[in-house]
Amino acid sequence: MVIPWWRDAVVYEIYVRSFADASGDGVGDLAGIRQRLPYLRGLGVDAIWLTPFYPSPMADGGYDVADYRDVDPLFGSLADFEALVAEAHAHELKVLVDVVPNHSSAEHPWFRAALRGEGRDRYIFRDEPNNWQSTFSGPAWTQVPDGQWYLHLFAPGQPDFNWRNPEVHEEFLDVLRFWLDRGVDGFRIDVAMGLYKEEGLPDVKDQSFKAASPIWGRPEVHEVYRDWRKLLDSYPGKRMAVGEVWTDDLADLALYVRPDELHQSFNFAWLQAPWSATAFRKVIDDTLATVPFATWVLSNHDVVRHRTRYEADDPGTGPARAKAALLTMLALPGSAYLYQGEELGLPEVRDLPPEARQDPVFLQSGGTLPGRDGCRVPLPWSSGGASHGFSPDGVRPWLPQPPDFGALSVEAQNGDPGSMLEFYRRALTCRRELLGSIPYTIEWLDSSSDALFFTRGPLTCAINCGVEPVRLPPHDSVLMATGPAADDRLPPDTAIWLRTG
Ligand code: GLC
Q1: Average pLDDT, stretch 468-493?
Q2: 329 near 337, Cβ under 8 Å?
Q3: Do 228 and 176 meet the contact criterion of CB atoms below 8 Å apart?
Q4: Does residue 70 carry a pLDDT above 80?
Q5: Ligand 1 probe mutation, 15, 51, 53, 60, most atoms within 8 A of CB
Q6: How far is residue 403 from each of residues 28, 349, 387, measured CA to CA in Å?
């Protein structure tokens, strides 16, 4: 069997606004990414996923798209994008872009026309709202001057498309072609389970992400991905799509990755699991039993960084646990998605001043929800300076960086064998070397309930989530460890890769 490139790929998510600013306006851009491609190649990832860089009023950081076929001047130009793809490919990095099909921006020409009364059927307008709530808090409906209401499952600046209108379907096939023709290797599909709503838009008792709820995971959505799959397969080079599918049950996730649909779906169950061997084992077992091509993810631009999540109940354990979870994830069959800054061990920034915050979750909830800005703080590239090297000298970034970011910068960690960054580099190199010799299956070995031991051919991975050291399983040598493992004992909050044979 020819293994498709994405099956075992390590994909690095670039939240474009916060990665690197070359233009000097305090906001990350495509030119900034181009400058850092050698860094990404050196880190050892296989692909990058770019969050939306399309023209947008930024009501939701670019997830409110006003033009699906261009680049916002804030981020550069189409020519910059084309250069980025060419240079990424020269660095042997694949490029995934975000596609946002559930909703457009309220500034999209179609919605502006709808407000004038033209083509309202491309969106969801009603004379009366139902009881649905916006995911960002508050009602999911906003009234327009002539008295009708439109549906927005997110911010009012993000009106939901009416996917029952064939024009919407055709439009997105054409948008995909536009980027495929520019050489992208795949797409990350935003809110992939949201496109269709139940006919009649009935009131709901709860808004959970169930398969075939009135709001999420309607069966009709799968026809869309069947058509997208045909389109992707018609291009050379194994183009792929990964869905952002929030579900309450892994079995629902499997529906999206049937052989004629999406290639992958994010596995948020892994990210939602607490620091617990039992919880990790359940997600691993359920995942491998239900989806043909597994993915693993610990952090992204929507959730509290995992270093901070894992230490919620045990302050100070975050960095060790983050390393151990990463090493475990990299040993599992399938592909791994990393989020920019996790390789530096960045924590969630909890104390951003309210006036600096821009996330609509914070703004729409009247400040009662912190929102997601805390995981979107611009990356520190160097130890000093007004932006720690994120922007050119003297420029302040769009979100303030905390004082300890200098010590976590790429410059501060480069070459320090004890740093998180060097640990990521070693782990990714070691994984790449192992991939050819390990099967796409795992076998569990006996362990105490606070630890997990599993093998993939010659590789054994062990993680200790308990409070006592555990005895290591039999092995011939140690490949990688996240902490000291002396006398055959694995300390708490530590993971290790062992070799046998
Ligand atoms: C997805 C994105 C998130 C965005 C939302 C609405 O969940 O990851 O950042 O706010 O969709 O587009």
Answers
A1: 95
A2: no
A3: yes
A4: yes
A5: 60
A6: 20, 11, 10
